[in-house]
């Protein structure tokens, strides 16, 4: 999904330290993608002022369930990305993906699509005609500096449902509960959908060098004893080798579990670009507006607009953001 805000924000972060036993609570920010009454609204938990990343996960939008007949669904014209990987995961609906690497694929519930932008890519996303409701998460992973200009690429995987104490899991990235995803990333990551039955508690081993986040889709969950409600994210720093998730409700809870090695590099993230400086973002925007071939062309998109135009840059200088405020 594109970040199609008309005036994308940037954050100047400062540094705070938290012991690994603390669970940080991140409330969602409502963001309208596009303009007008049919604009799609998402709940954004990353990035925020207090935390930019969970591992290398640098962007988390949660949307739906939206009735496509009422909202118009998703029709995002070709748009660019650099120095990141997009990770698409649906709970309901279907999205047609096309990109300038020549990939034409569908995003379906329970199947992960990971697109690598590297030096540059463009892609489009359109809800299919048979979609009644659209519901899912759109996640971005920042590429480390040594891999920021790698070749564009695309990976698709349908993970099996794995039984865990009190529920189930689907591992889209990394490894959990004896299951390992074949998806390749440039930093150590974990990404999984977890469903816990009413009253269930699951305590399990995790990599002590990973920080972990829990984004709640349905219900509410206690993360190491701290209640994280629907649409919010709980985050715990690296340092402990186990995690405890409990469902205190009388219905199923569904959540996205994200983890990864702490990402300590500073990045400038603006609109659909990730760069390392203000000057690089200016260059990337100019290249996209000029039709530079670093982003390629998307074949087969039949929407009203040939491509998205980049919004104006802010009048102030873009500053790097880091894992925590500094």
UniProtKB/TrEMBL annotation:
The lineage of its organism: Bacteria, Bacillati, Actinomycetota, Actinomycetes, Propionibacteriales. Keywords: Iron, Metal-binding. One of its GO terms (molecular function) is metal ion binding. Fe cation binds at residues 79, 81, 123, 125. Residues 42-141 form the Pirin N-terminal domain. SUPFAM superfamilies: RmlC-like cupins. Its cofactor is Fe cation. It comes from Tessaracoccus lapidicaptus. PANTHER family: PIRIN (PTHR13903:SF8), PIRIN-RELATED (PTHR13903). The keyword Transcription regulation does not apply. Belongs to the pirin family. This is Pirin. Binds 1 Fe cation per subunit. Residues 193-291 form the Pirin C-terminal domain.
């Amino acid at each position: 999904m594109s970040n199609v805000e008309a005036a994308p924000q940037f954050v100047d972060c400062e540094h705070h330290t938290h012991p690994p036993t603390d669970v940080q609570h991140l409330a969602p920010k409502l963001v309208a993608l596009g303009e007008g009454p049919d604009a799609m609204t998402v709940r954004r938990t990353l990035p925020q002022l207090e935390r930019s990343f969970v591992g290398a996960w640098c962007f988390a939008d949660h949307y739906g369930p939206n009735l496509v007949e009422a909202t118009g669904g998703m029709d995002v014209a070709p748009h660019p990305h650099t120095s990141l990987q997009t990770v698409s995961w649906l709970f309901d609906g279907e999205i047609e993906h096309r990109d300038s690497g020549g990939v034409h694929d569908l995003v379906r519930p329970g199947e992960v699509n990971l697109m690598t932008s590297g030096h540059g890519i463009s892609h489009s996303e359109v809800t299919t005609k048979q979609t009644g409701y659209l519901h899912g998460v759109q996640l971005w992973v920042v590429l480390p500096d040594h891999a920021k200009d790698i070749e564009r690429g695309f990976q698709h995987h349908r993970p099996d449902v794995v039984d865990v104490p009190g529920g189930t899991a689907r591992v889209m990235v990394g490894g959990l509960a004896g299951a390992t995803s074949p998806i390749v990333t440039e930093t150590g990551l974990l990404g999984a959908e977890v469903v816990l039955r009413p009253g269930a508690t699951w305590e399990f081993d995790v990599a002590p060098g990973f920080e972990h986040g829990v984004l709640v889709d349905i219900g509410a969950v206690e993360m190491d004893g701290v209640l994280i409600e629907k649409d919010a994210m709980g985050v715990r720093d690296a340092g402990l080798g186990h995690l405890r998730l409990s469902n205190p409700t009388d219905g199923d809870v569904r959540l996205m579990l994200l983890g990864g090695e702490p990402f300590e590099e500073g990045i400038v993230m603006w609109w659909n670009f990730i760069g390392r400086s203000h000057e690089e973002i200016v260059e990337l925007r100019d290249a996209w507006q000029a039709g530079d071939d670093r982003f390629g062309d998307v074949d087969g998109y039949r929407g009203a607009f040939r491509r998205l135009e980049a919004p104006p840059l802010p009048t102030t200088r873009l500053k790097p953001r880091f894992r925590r405020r500094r």
